[in-house]
Amino acid sequence: MLSLLFNGAEGSTLDELKSVLHFKDEISFNNELKALIILLSDIKNNELQITNTAYVQEGIEIMDDFLTIYTHTYSNNFISFLSYIDFEYIDNAQYINYAIQVITNNKISDVILPEYINDDTKFVLVNTVYFKPRWLDIFDEKDTKEHMFHVSKTQKYFVPTMFKNSIYKYGIIESWRCSFIEIPYLASNNCHFKSFHE
Questions:
Q1: Domain that holds residue 149
Q2: How far, in Å, CA of 56 to CA of 63, rounded?
Q3: C-alpha dihedral over 13, 19, 21, 22, to 10 degrees?
Q4: What is the pLDDT of residues 148-195, one digit of tens each?
Q5: Phi, psi (rounded to 5 degrees) for 78
Q6: 8 Å CB contact between 161 and 147
Q7: pTM of the model
Q8: Can you give the CATH number for the domain in which 159 is found?
Q9: Contact indicator for 188, 41 with CB cutoff of 8 Å
Q10: What is the count of structural domains for the chain?
């Protein structure tokens, strides 16, 4: 999402994005983005769907440079939509949330609250990633058990948790006060990192 904003921003907003993303210009940034796209497209045996949707207020004209990047770099590699809507309608949040819910196979819903959209809203950019991997070493469903999950220091819930005895790469990030293990995906150089906070 920040990459789309990078290509559509100017002035102090662009300066902030350059600082956050550590890029000096749009050309080098977009070259890196294309390399990332190639890497992502090489992921096999896993379900990966990246969707970008730009919701634009009816009557607003989008810059040609942004449209070129959006339609060529993004639409050719990811699923990308450009939708003109009237943000004055109260059900716009529900409309956007429904689209997110469909894209993520009902895993994510109610991202946009109605109060997030008002008369000043002219542009909403939504980036959705649905990733369902296949593990190199498959977890047995019968070993999934309810386990305590800590949302914060005061909130905790029981959630279905996969268990498995195996050998994994392990590391510690002292500054975050957490440890992690690396779980490889099937036929891929990509891994899932599961962290454990102290």
A1: 141-197
A2: 12
A3: 140
A4: 988 888 999 999 998 988 888 999 988 888 898 888 877 555 555 454
A5: -120, 170
A6: yes
A7: 0.64
A8: 2.30.39.10
A9: no
A10: 2
